[in-house]
Design a protein that fits this description.
The structure holds 2 protein chains of 2 kinds. Chain A is α+β, with helices and mostly antiparallel strands. Helices cover 20% and strands 30% of the residues of chain A. In chain A, a hairpin with a 4-residue loop joins strand 2 and strand 3. Chain B is an alpha/beta fold. Helices cover 36% and strands 19% of the residues of chain B. Chain B contains 9 helices and 11 strands. In chain B, helix 4 packs across helix 9 and helix 5 packs parallel to helix 6. The chains are: A alpha+beta, B alpha/beta.
Chain lengths: 105, 267
Amino acid sequence: MRELLNDIERWQQAGKQIAVARVVDIEGSGPRDPGAAMAVNEDGEVVGSVSGGCVEGAVVAEALEILRGDKQPRLVKFGYSDDEAFAVGLTCGGIIHLFIAPLTW
Amino acid sequence: MSLYSIFAERVRSNIPVALITVIDGPNIGATMLVSPSTEAEGTLGDAELDRVVARDALGEVEAGRTGVRHYGPQGQTTPEDLIDTPTVRVFIEAFSPPPTMWIFGAVDFTAALAKVAKVLGYYVVVCDAREVFATRRRFPMADEVLVSWPAPLFTQRGAALTSRDAVCILTHDPKFDVPAVQGALATNVGYIGVMGSRKTHAKRLERLAEVGITSTDQLSRLMSPIGLDIGARTPEETAISIVGEIIARRTGRGAPSLRDSDGPIHK
């Protein structure tokens, strides 16, 4: 998240709602370690990444729903073999667990 | 002041801090900050849970580790206590100051290595006793450029070096590299690389023996000649071979090509 601070603060100063998605756990092979983070603002602008580009699109959609209040902050799992996973997967075959929540603290 | 601004300020000031978030269970999204020798900021919703998690998070910050831990709603950690109680899953993310790389010798290889080390997030210090070479202008990418002999730098700041840090000795000058090796061996630094041909390395070993450095334990800490055998020729290629070696030493890998090895890529 270190690398996101400047953008987050620029958005905060512009009064934007912000959601942050962070990798909290990885099973098997994963492109980014726990702590990898991306931030999404209410306009759909994005900084940072949580995978090698495989799941970022779906994370943005999820983050926007959470910002609109359609969904609660939650753990989301991306993986190739799980029925509950999103339609997108990781090409490396691993599973990543993300926590997505609004930056309200 | 919001928790976020306290967090951002600590990260920017290189103060070690753990960002603690409830990711599952009661109070999902609750956030707390913990730094050494400071009171915790924020709450996870239960005083006892806060106390136990803060204690664990301090350990994680010191080790620079990030991961998920499980607790009972009042911070219970023993398996018996967790039966029949909803579990709180907590993500503890450690923000520790960046690792440090000290580079001795203000040569072209130094500029290339400093550049690559910055990409990897190191705090880079370039040190050379020669005032004309150790200049900001030649090493704009370094965090510090010091005109100094190695001994005073190690005396003043050597104790701060840890297993995450690296010392790279790129000067070929015995006046400089012998005291630099001596200084580095007296610290807990994780990586010590010394540049030079195999011939230079053999001569260096003789000179180190003259100053009393003969034990295999000490000499085995030296990566000399420095770098992985990838056929690097230019300063930039050499820099890649050096940081490749630093990564491989840290992860305990033999650095073969992934194609030619087995097992998971990420362990």
